[in-house]
Design goal:
The chain has 422 residues and is of the alpha/beta class. 38% of the residues lie in helices and 14% in strands. Bound molecules: pyridoxal-5'-phosphate. It comes from Pseudooceanicola nanhaiensis.
Length: 422
C-alpha cells in the first residue's frame, strides 16, 4: 500500500534546515504532497522513494538518465576510474580522449571544454560569444530556460536589471521576431541562443521550423556573431549529433550537460574553429570541473551512444507511450495534447488551464507506481521496454478512471497559478 509518511517527515525536517524546504525544480512548491521528493534508490527504469515505493520514472532525473540508472557498462567505467584517481591537481589524460570523442561525433565541433552543470556550459557560451568580437548583445527566446544563473534564472529574486541588461528577447520559431531583435542589437550583436525545440515549462512543445533555424544561422553570419544551440536538455535524445543537425543547421557553439555522463556530473561547451580563440580567452574553471570519474563515465556513455541502437529504441518506446496514452485518454473521455519529440514527451490535458486535471492524474498514477510530471516535459530512457509501457498503462488507466470519477471536485493548485503568472 502506497504511503508517504517518511517523505512527509523529511519535508518537515527540510523546512527547518533548507530555505523554503527545497529549491529549484525540486521545490516542494511545485511538488505537493503526493509527489515524493526524497529518493533512496535508482536502478534501470525505476526509482524508489524514502517510503520504499518504487516508480517507473518518466523524469529520468530531469534528463541525465539516458541509458538506464546504474547502467552496468557505465558503472564499470566509474569503478575502474575511481580506483585510480578522480579529483586531482590536474586533469587525467581522459580529458583529451573525451574532447577527441566529442569532436569526432558532433559535426560542428572542433574543440570541447568541460564543466559540471548545464548552466556552466550555457554561461561559457555567453562569455565566448561576447569574447569573440567584444560585442555585448545576446538574443534569447522568451521563456526559454538556459539555466539558473543571474542572466538566465526564470525567477526575479536576487537578480538586478543589470544582470540582463544586454539580453534581447525574441519569439521562438519566428524569423521576423528574430530579425527585429537583431536589428535592435545594432552593431553590438554577440550571439543568438536557441534551444533545439521549444520546451518551455507549462507549455506545449514546438519543433523548430527549418526557416527559423536557417534565419538564425544567416543573421549570426551577417553580423559576425555566434550561433549557440543549447542542447543541455535535448542532447542525444534527438540525434547522435547536435540536435539541429536534424534540420541541417550547424551552430558555432553547443552547450551539453545532463546525458553526457549518464548521471555523473559533467557538462561541456563545444565549438568550431571560428570560436576557438574567443573560448581560449575566457577564464572559466571550477574545483571539480576536471574530475576524472565523470569523464570516464562520459567516454563509456558516448561509446554506447555510437555503438548501439539506444536512440531508435527510445524513439519506438516514446511513440508507443504517446499513441497508447492518447488512445487510453480518449477512452475515458479526456483529450491530451502530447507534443514534442517522442523521446521528450510533454503531456497536457485539453481544457485544463489551471492544471487541475494534470496534477490529479499524475498524483493518481504516482500512487500506482508511475512517476509522471503534470507541467514539465518528461524523458524516455533506453532501458525502458514495452513491458514498462504496458505496466505504465495499467497505472494510467486506473488514474484516468479515478479523475473521471472525481472530476467535479478537483481543485487547482493556487501556488502553481501564482508561479505561472510570475
Ligand atoms: C535547455 C537547458 N539549458 C540549461 C539547463 C541548465 O542545466 P543545469 O540544471 O545542469 O545547470 C537546463 C536544465 O534543465 C536546460 O534544460
Amino acid at each position: 500500500m502506497w504511503s508517504n509518511a517518511k517523505d512527509r517527515a523529511l519535508r518537515d525536517r527540510a523546512a527547518q534546515v533548507i530555505p523554503g524546504g527545497m529549491y529549484g525544480h525540486q521545490s516542494t512548491v511545485l511538488m505537493p504532497e503526493g509527489f515524493p521528493q526524497f529518493f533512496t534508490r535508482s536502478d534501470g527504469t525505476r526509482i524508489t522513494d524514502a517510503d520504499g515505493n518504487t516508480y517507473i520514472d518518466f523524469m529520468c532525473a530531469y534528463g541525465p538518465n539516458l541509458l538506464g540508472y546504474q547502467h552496468p557498462r557505465v558503472m564499470a567505467a566509474i569503478e575502474r576510474q575511481q580506483a585510480l584517481s578522480d579529483t586531482s591537481t590536474g586533469p587525467s589524460p581522459l580529458i583529451v580522449d573525451l574532447a577527441e570523442a566529442l569532436v569526432g561525433m558532433i559535426s560542428h565541433a572542433d574543440w570541447a571544454m568541460f564543466c559540471k552543470n548545464g548552466s556552466d556550459a550555457t554561461t561559457m557560451a555567453l562569455m565566448t560569444a561576447r569574447a569573440y568580437r567584444g560585442k555585448r548583445k545576446v538574443l534569447v527566446a522568451t521563456g526559454a530556460y538556459h539555466g539558473s544563473l543571474p542572466w538566465s534564472t526564470p525567477r526575479p529574486g536576487g537578480v538586478v536589471a543589470e544582470d540582463r541588461a544586454h539580453l534581447i528577447y525574441y519569439t521562438y520559431n519566428d524569423p521576423q521576431a528574430l530579425a527585429d531583435a537583431v536589428k535592435q542589437a545594432g552593431d553590438d550583436l554577440a550571439g543568438i541562443f536557441a534551444t533545439p525545440f521549444r520546451h518551455d515549462t507549462f507549455h506545449d512543445q514546438t519543433l523548430p521550423d527549418a526557416e527559423y533555424a536557417r534565419a538564425a544561422r544567416r543573421l549570426a553570419d551577417e553580423h559576425d556573431a555566434l550561433l549557440v544551440v543549447d542542447d543541455v536538455r535535448a542532447g542525444f535524445r534527438m540525434s547522435r549529433d547536435c540536435s539541429w543537425e536534424t534540420i541541417g543547421v550547424r551552430p558555432d557553439l553547443s552547450a551539453w550537460g545532463k546525458v553526457l555522463g549518464n548521471g555523473q556530473p559533467i557538462s561541456a561547451l563545444l565549438g568550431n574553429d571560428r570560436a576557438r580563440e574567443a573560448a581560449a580567452n575566457i577564464f572559466v574553471t571550477g574545483s571539480y570541473w576536471f574530475s576524472a570519474v565523470p569523464m570516464a563515465a562520459a567516454l563509456e556513455t558516448l561509446r554506447i551512444v555510437r555503438e548501439t541502437d539506444y536512440l531508435e529504441h527510445m524513439q519506438i518506446i516514446g511513440e508507443l507511450f504517446r499513441s497508447a496514452l492518447t488512445g487510453q485518454a480518449t477512452g475515458y473521455g479526456f483529450t491530451l495534447r502530447h507534443t514534442g519529440p517522442e523521446t521528450l514527451p510533454m503531456v497536457l490535458f485539453e481544457e485544463d488551464p489551471d492544471f487541475r486535471l494534470g496534477y490529479a492524474f499524475c498524483a493518481a498514477a504516482m500512487k500506482r507506481g508511475v512517476y509522471l510530471s503534470p507541467y514539465h516535459n518528461m524523458f524516455i530512457n533506453a532501458a525502458m521496454t514495452e513491458a514498462d509501457i504496458a505496466e505504465t498503462l495499467e497505472a494510467t488507466g486506473a488514474a484516468f478512471e479515478e479523475i473521471k470519477q472525481n472530476r467535479d471536485t478537483l481543485q487547482p493548485s493556487q501556488v502553481l497559478m501564482a508561479l505561472m503568472e510570475a
